[in-house]
Amino acid sequence: MTLLLCIIFLALIFDYINGFHDAANAIATIVATKGLTPFQAVVWSAFFNFIAFWVFGFGVADTVAKTADTMQIDLVVILAGVIAAIIWNLFTWAMGIPSSSSHTLIGGFAGAALTHAFIQHGGGDYTIVKEGETLTRHWYQIVNWYTPGKEGYLPTGVMVIVCFIALAPLIGMLLSYILSVWLMYSSKKSVGPKLFTVALLATTYFLISKEYNTNPEKLRFGHSIWSIICEPSNIKWSIVGIIVTSIGLFCLRFSSLPMSRSAAILKRMQLLTSASFSLGHGGNDSQKVMGIIAAAVMVFVREQHESLQDLPNWLKIDMEAGSMPDWIPLACYTAIAAGTLSGGWKIVKTMGSKITKVTPFEGVVAETAGSLTLFLTEHFKIPVSTTHTITGSIIGVGITKRISAVRWGVTINLLWAWVLTIPVSAVLACITYLILQLFI
User: Fold this and answer.
1) Which end of the chain, C or N, has fewer beta carbons within 10 A?
2) How many other CB atoms are found less than 10 A from the CB of residue 226?
3) Number of other CB atoms surrounding residue 324 within 10 Å
4) Alpha-carbon distance 436 to 222, whole Å?
């Protein structure tokens, strides 16, 4: 039990570090455009990091919990992974490098699991009994590299997460480019842009209506209408609708507004777009820590030879049913919000000014593209990097001006940090695991 509590404590410490390490993702653009002061921005971001508790489920947490086979690892594996992730996060924060906290955690978890498997099985095969069937596994199969997705969902596994190192910023970049072109096209005084905007709004409402859950299991406030409105997944899609509607209404008026008035409206719109990105950041990144805690509890239950029913209520986690005690998500969302309040000013400078010049126009577009990417990937239970997502979004809005508007030297340095994060974290976890084995 002591080791489990130690893992939970360190996981929440990681979540706190994640908050101030990744604070720049949500606040850099709004600070750079002077939409909010740095203090106002971190308070604003931290608030929406926390209320993500009422918006998102546990899909990403389930994916992270299954990074390694919890039937074949011990608590030392998880402890080593978390410690390695903390070390790499603190190092990149001190250097002002916006690396991915998400990939740090997953790389550490996978690296420690592989080290454990290699030591236990000597690089050979081993057998396990799963659902009454005896299976032969290679030592490296302790990590979930690839699992085909269920109907309606994408595949999961470390290889899918690695693919999204490239895909997440590309999706963010593509969305921000499309949004930029839409806004610039709307500045023309002709009927075409307005018809396009109306058609896009209608299409958005239609797609959102298809995703709405009109039969929620939980009755809220004693009325079915409130139950539908307050269903977490419906809140998420409602926010998407509000964001697209606000941009659409602006586009319908854009051509008739003077430049100064347009800039003032865009600066106010940044409050909405930065809030939505902070919401996505909290929902995406906190779930990864929930997944680590869930994995630790599952390993503890197996080691103690206890059943789920015999556990105290505060440890009853059933990821298959998508349920866990409220204290876990509350603690995780509180930790990341507290970390965000601490700020991360070195990385703010990189994200807010070094990649490309950011105005309220670029700020609204980048944050909108980033939040839409996070909401979409969370829907498919894919843990992506908020750092990669917002960086790609900032680059996308930069290249709409001209290719040279993006400072590619800075971008290439960031790419190196992204590529190295998982393998470096895995190596750190390997070393940490070997050291811990000497004492535990």
Assistant:
1) N
2) 13
3) 21
4) 52
